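tool_log.txt
---
The assistant was asked to compare two proteins side by side. It first ran the structure predictor on the initial sequence, then on the second. Raw inputs and outputs are pasted verbatim so the downstream comparison step can read them without reformatting.
(1)
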Amino acid sequence: MNATMPSRWPQVAAQPYAWPFDGRWSSTDSALIVIDVQRDLAERVADAALLDRMQQVVQAARRRALPIVFTTRAIDPSSDADARWAAIDAPDARPAAIGSAGAALARPHWRLAGDLLVQRSAWSPFQGTDLEVQLRARGVRNLILIGLTTDGAVHACMRKANDAGLECLLLEDACVAVRPAHHQTILDVTRFGNGLFGTTATARQLINALPQP
């Protein structure tokens, strides 16, 4: 960690409580996960303003040396394990094929050498991967989530992360649902019961809490 950075940063003005709950977060114990900002999804549900906001979050996290994880979801149509996904007649639920243009990161320049990349076919990036092991190895206990889609992989990731004991913050204006009505529902579910699955805040609220580099 950069010696000029404080070991504890200001809490984020999140809902339903200031995040993280114990006030302990820094580049040594927190990470940003950018979920499935890949071509097939971005072309369908993400506009330029959303992608620009996500980029601002990635850049702010990088300036403060936060570890950054990128994920993509793709299937092997010839695999028995992925056969069900390949047969689904619903474009918003059927993942792109492994190696296809749709499975590639929509903004590949966001990812730099040293950033973790997690590829899988399940909804959650934690399912069938070593993501939790990688985060534990980096000392991560707090996770900031952005990406695509709120009502798909983002929520699936947050629920798995919560079960793993990670303190989650979902940036509500740095993600989008396939169906707009679902977006607010997921935010409400996240905050239910005083933060059953985590907290939510805006991208600006996160950036404002990050100390100047």
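(2)
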Amino acid sequence: MAQKKRRKKSAAARSPKPLTYRDAGVDIDAGDALVDEIAALVKPTMRPEVVGGVGGFGALVRIPKKYRVPVLVSGTDGVGTKLKLAIDSKRYDGLGVDLVAMCVNDILVSGAEPLFFLDYYATGKLDHKVAAAVIRGIADGCRQAGCALVGGETAEMPGLYGKGDFDLAGFAVGVVEDGAVIDGKAIVPGDALIALPSSGPHSNGYALIRKVLSRSRANVSRRLAAFGGRSLAELLLEPTRIYVKPVLAMLERIRVKGMAHITGGGVTENLPRVFPRDCAARVDLRSWERPAVFDWLAREGRIEDAEMRRTFNCGVGFVLVVAGADADRALAELRRLGERPWILGEVVRGPQNVEYA
């Protein structure tokens, strides 16, 4: 008797259970729960110009009425591989501040007041606890900068990120009066360079930092007397300073000709960006004491001084350029505002570079 030909069952027949988005690795309910928590964090950051709240498809923000001819200034950035050190150390609280700082400090260079901020958080599988810690930091950074956290995106993308990994991006928009834009065009030889201290490496140079940590096999959790009883992890993950409020307050009292946010490339690469073509900086290396964490990195990584200065901020987080005659008043005003400024050097005639003395 002829045997009947067996037919293979389809994949759907072998697995009768209907598939859901959660089966594919995306938990919509977890995302919704995070949005509910974010709403409470966002509320204290609101400005009167914000129209509506979190949850819409787009954020609506009015221009503050005090600006007659407003110019919008935008900036975007991330935290870089500092994320990897934070993930490995399971320390997430400062990352959100880092994210805000890297964006708002950049737009501050033009004299802009930050208005609002949006974030993008991407991961393979959403960890509610980690995401909430990061977003709490973002809200904290927005409060420090005086800008509203008006929205963002949390993207769960299974298969694209390793277990526990995530990435961050931030977007800031600020406003400055058309006639008050600070662009460096008025800088001339004889102007003074005023430095504001960093809180550590901020969010730059971490590919090299992680290389040094790997080579030295250092215990990042060990507290050391050389670091004032703090650990390497604490120093390296210290959040980036946000300079917005003291600098904007100073701009109301002192004429500032140019500013530089000292990020990747250090003073060497960032300061000339705000100079006219015929101006250079003469920086006095004796004018400040390099923080111990940078000395440790230089020693353990055998990093030469020139490489340190073009990779890290080495303790200089932000630089303002004022007329030489205004330097003392500028220093006094910054100290009154709670800052610890110092004269970093002066502007000289030269080919748009930095000379170290």
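---
observation on (2): The first strand starts at residue 50 and ends at 51. The two ends are 101 Å apart (CA to CA).
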